[in-house]
Write a structure and sequence with these properties.
The complex is a heterodimer. Chain A is of the alpha/beta class. Chain A has one domain: Rossmann fold. Chain A has a six-stranded mixed sheet with strand order 5-6-7-3-8-9, sandwiched between helices. A three-stranded antiparallel sheet of chain A has the order 2-1-4, covered by helices on one side. The relative contact order of chain A is 0.18. Chain B is of the alpha/beta class. Chain B folds into two domains: about 210 residues, P-loop containing nucleotide triphosphate hydrolases (Rossmann fold, 3-Layer(aba) Sandwich), CATH 3.40.50.300; about 60 residues, Alpha-Beta Plaits (2-Layer Sandwich), CATH 3.30.70. Chain B is about 40% helix and about 25% strand. In chain B, strand 8, helix 6 and strand 9 form a beta-alpha-beta unit. The longest helix of chain B is centred in the last third of the chain and has 19 residues. The radius of gyration of chain B is 22 Å and the shape is globular. Classes of the chains: A alpha/beta, B alpha/beta. At the A-B interface, helix 4, helix 5 and helix 8 of A face helix 5, helix 6, strand 13 and helix 11 of B.
């Protein structure tokens, strides 16, 4: 099997604290894999290791540092220049990726149309609604047509309508053959992924298809809560846990 | 209240009317940019309305802003804590700002929110869920009669989200009114009543059940073996079809779709179940916002 995204025995420590403690995941070409986990479970660290932004302390990742130009990375929160317009942001990220002017112009047009942002080209990014900001972030992260997409909670703070539009973009990218790894806090989003990983305190608690994890019509949410309750006795998470 | 707020030429909150009762958990929902945060800031006495009138806890939002601020706990998006200070330092800061002298009360709030163990830790080092509980503690130290929480669960994991809602419910039982915004529809469905805003206007208000009724929908929920293929076919035929996880919802007004039509469209695929049910909060939200947009376009 050819895995576009892979981690084997991945370990990452920060000042001695274990953030990832031997994580194995594998996502085949054209799949979407969703990562669910509590705050501090290691989701963001996992994505950053796979994107090659952090060097693992042990284990191996793919694509990692060597394959950074094959990755589109959409970090948590909004990281566009708020005092630049939509078009200027796209221009900036395109030039960072080294696209020539003609190519950039063509892709910018395509992507803004695709993201429903064409009529907002000249609006300052800081004045877009949360849903539009997330769509702009996604558009900028795929300007260089990366085969691999890493998305860190891309729909947090996004209203239900925009979330639905955002997913149409994701599905279109998947249909084009992108391989996607996504951290999410929403069960209904993760249910649409071919593969699901429950991450807890830097370890994979469970992984598989939705049917593997929540058999016989049980909801993924119920399965997740059950596993978390079993695993989280003694979590250093304040007194309420 | 009937309220409006303009920034320059832009009317962000446009002639809005609703009321919230004491001890109620009242949800504000609406698309990004609907005006929820602007509304909240007027109600907390932070923005002065451009028109209309509103009272909060019996005080006028245009004239009694200081009295309102003394009695309201406002937790902004992003929680509003000092990230480089510890939990205790933040709580002390807020207690000082509000002139709270009863340090035993502050201790009680800290204990109630499960923050004793982490009280010396710097806020930026805490998991989001604990940071959020610290923020809630900070808005409770002056014993507000009303708490206003702007997207309190944004970016917070599912387990911590449950804990947050349990606390809000508990406080409401003790008589603390809560005004909460959220984009998570299962959370909205837990509120006593809701106001749905879009484009600065009130689209609908009532209990979650009222809003669901108001959408006048029934939903065909379909579970199919190859849901991607099924969804592509159904959406081609009925553009309002939507995925909820791997199940497909087709919202239908007045039973205008025949079940045989759906099965025909899915010919060759294994339909595991097809049931008719009431819409979810999310179905209702989208239907009401869509209907409102159509109505607004029609007017203009």
């Amino acid at each position: 099997m050819d895995f576009e995204i892979e981690a084997r025995g991945l370990v990452k420590r920060f000042r001695g604290a274990m953030a990832l403690d031997g994580v194995d995941i594998a996502v085949a070409s054209g799949e979407i894999c969703g990562v669910l986990g509590a705050d501090g479970a290691g989701k963001t660290t996992l994505l950053r290791c796979i994107a090659g932004l952090y060097r693992p302390d042990a284990g191996a990742v793919r694509p990692g540092r060597a394959g950074r130009d094959r990755v589109g990375f959409s970090p948590q929160g909004f990281h566009m220049y708020e005092d630049l317009t939509v078009a200027e942001n796209v221009q900036f990220f395109g030039s960072v990726y080294g696209l020539d002017r003609a190519t950039l112009q063509q892709r910018a047009d395509e992507l803004l149309e695709f993201a429903g942002l064409s009529q907002f080209r000249s609006r300052l990014a800081g004045q877009l609604s949360g849903g539009m900001q997330q769509k702009l972030t996604l558009a900028c992260s795929v300007l260089h047509r990366p085969p691999i997409l890493l998305l860190d909670e891309p729909t947090t703070g996004v209203d239900p309508l925009s979330r639905r539009e955002f997913w149409q973009l994701i599905e279109a990218l998947r249909a084009d053959g992108s391989t996607i790894l996504m951290a999410s806090a929403y069960f209904d989003e993760v249910e649409r992924c071919e593969k699901v990983v429950f991450l807890h305190e830097g370890r994979v608690l469970a992984a598989g298809t939705v049917d593997d994890l929540a058999p016989a019509g049980a909801s993924l949410e119920a399965a997740f809560r059950e596993r978390m309750a079993l695993a989280s006795s003694g979590t250093p998470n304040g007194d309420l846990g | 209240m009937e309220l409006s707020k303009r920034f320059g030429d832009v009317t962000v909150v446009d002639d809005l009317t609703f009321d919230v009762a004491e001890g109620e958990v009242f949800g504000l929902i609406g698309p990004n940019g609907a005006g929820k945060t602007t509304l909240i800031r007027m109600l907390c006495g932070l923005f002065t309305p451009s028109g209309g009138r509103a009272t909060v806890l019996g005080f006028d939002v245009a004239h009694d802003q200081r009295r309102i601020r003394e009695r309201v706990g406002y937790m902004s998006q992003g929680f509003g804590l000092y990230g480089d200070l510890s939990v205790d330092e933040n709580l002390r800061f807020y207690a000082d700002v509000y002139g709270v002298r009863d340090s035993a009360y502050v201790d009680a709030v800290r204990a109630r929110l499960g923050l004793v163990e982490v009280r010396h830790l710097v806020v930026d080092d805490l998991p989001t869920g604990v940071r959020q509980r610290s923020a809630l503690a900070a808005v409770l130290v002056h014993q507000p009669q009303l708490i206003v929480l702007d997207e309190p669960t944004s970016g917070v994991d599912p387990v911590a989200r449950d804990g947050m809602w349990r606390l809000v419910r508990e406080l409401a039982r003790e008589g603390v009114t809560a005004l909460v915004t959220t984009h998570v529809m299962p959370e909205a469905a837990q509120c006593d009543r809701l106001a749905l805003l879009a484009g600065g206007r009130l689209v609908a208000a009532g209990t979650p059940e009222d809003l669901i009724d108001r959408s006048q929908l029934t939903v065909a929920e379909i579970s199919v073996s190859s849901w991607k293929e099924a969804f592509a076919r159904l959406q081609m035929r009925w553009p309002s079809a939507a995925l909820h996880g791997t199940r497909i919802h087709i919202p239908v007004a007045d039973h205008s779709i025949d079940e045989r039509d759906i099965r025909h469209t899915l010919e060759g695929l294994e339909v595991r179940s097809l049931i008719w049910q009431s819409p979810t909060m999310e179905d209702a939200f989208i239907a009401l916002v869509d209907a409102n947009e159509l109505a607004v376009e029609h007017q203009e």
